[in-house]
Amino acid sequence: MTVQSDFLMCCIPIWEPTPSRQSPDRLRRHRRLRSGHGPAFLFLRFIPEVCFMSSLSSRPVGRILISNDDGIDAIGIGILGEIASRLSDDIWVIAPNGNRSGMSRAITLHRDVTIEPLGNNRFSCSGTPSDCVIMGMARVLDRKPDLVLSGINAGMNAADDVLYSGTIAAAMEASLMGVPSIALSQRNGRLDPDDFAAAAAHGEAVIRHILKTGIPPRTVMNVNFPPVAPDAVRGIMPASLDNHKFGDQVIDGDGPNSYRLGPMMARQETIAGSDRAVMDEGWISLTALGMDITASTAQSALVQLDF
């Protein structure tokens, strides 16, 4: 079975440049074209260009793989499964066997990772969110999925949080494997299903909107739902990453010389147009995250040094 193509290809016409070596007949035709005589299509050719209109925008979506970092029994992944069932008839869930929040893109090295079948295409994994995607594609699925959905995370993954998030890491791992991926999080989501009301009500529409627009290669679409009632959500707003962290509280642990991370110290003010700012205004934030984390402005200022 072949893997469904991630992106449609389109063609655009371009002018073929004059070759340096051509036959006399071809040169005469080229001169006629440039002088306004002769059929213009003689020197038109078509080249494929990637159009970011995903083939996944058709209904139904093909195979969907779901993962998260809150664990296989988390409320959010159950809600995401219900949303996915309205998009596809071929759904697989591979998620950690416990909470793996804050694991970022960690992978398991030098020890085994166990995957346990739970029935109905659901599997628990002893590893990290990235392990779930890697092992799932390598050992559980017989072919790549057409879409990976990660979440719905209990709490936002916005601003500086994206660097710690296992939810986003699972989506990034899929993107690196060439699979379109979306990470979804509910701001202020905790242990009550009512906390996820906005995500449950609007998740399907958000995913369909993203797939219609298209997901470029090596890109994760990061979605954060505001902590408001579903009928108070204003819509979807593209947003940049905010900048809010300035430290962490460290608290004493249970034993001598032991410590734990407490609440993050964050600024209350937001940057206009950022993910936290638009959520404060009742919008669902949508941010495209790329795999290339080069600081382009700083990089352009670097100077070569010869030895």
Textual characterization of the structure:
The chain has helices spanning 24-34, 75-84, 129-140, 166-176, 197-213, 275-280, 296-300; strands at residues 7-15, 44-54, 63-67, 90-96, 115-119, 122-125, 147-154, 181-186, 219-225, 235-238, 245-252, 259-266, 283-290. The chain is of the alpha/beta class and 307 residues long. Strand 7, helix 4 (166-176) and strand 8 (181-186) form a beta-alpha-beta unit. Helix 2 (75-84) packs across helix 5 (197-213) and helix 3 (129-140) packs parallel to helix 4 (166-176).
Which parts are unreliable, with pLDDT below 50 for 5 consecutive residues or more?
1-58
Strand order of the largest sheet: 5-6-4-3-7-8-9-13-10
- What is the H level of CATH, i.e. the homologous superfamily of the largest domain? Survival protein SurE-like phosphatase/nucleotidase
CATH first level of the largest domain: Alpha Beta
Task: Give the number of domains.
Answer: 2
CATH topology call of the largest domain: Stationary-phase Survival Protein Sure Homolog, Chain: A
**Which H/E pattern describes the elements?**
EHEEHEEEHEHEHEEEEHEH
CATH architecture descriptor of the largest domain: 3-Layer(aba) Sandwich
Total helical elements: 7
Radius of gyration over C-alpha positions, nearest whole angstrom: 24 Å
State the end-to-end CA separation: 54 Å
What is the total tally of β strands?
13
Helix content: 10-25%
Average pLDDT works out at: 83
Q: Which secondary-structure class do the elements indicate? A: alpha/beta
Largest sheet, in brief, is:
9 strands, mixed
Q: Rough shape?
A: globular
Amount of beta strand: 25-35%
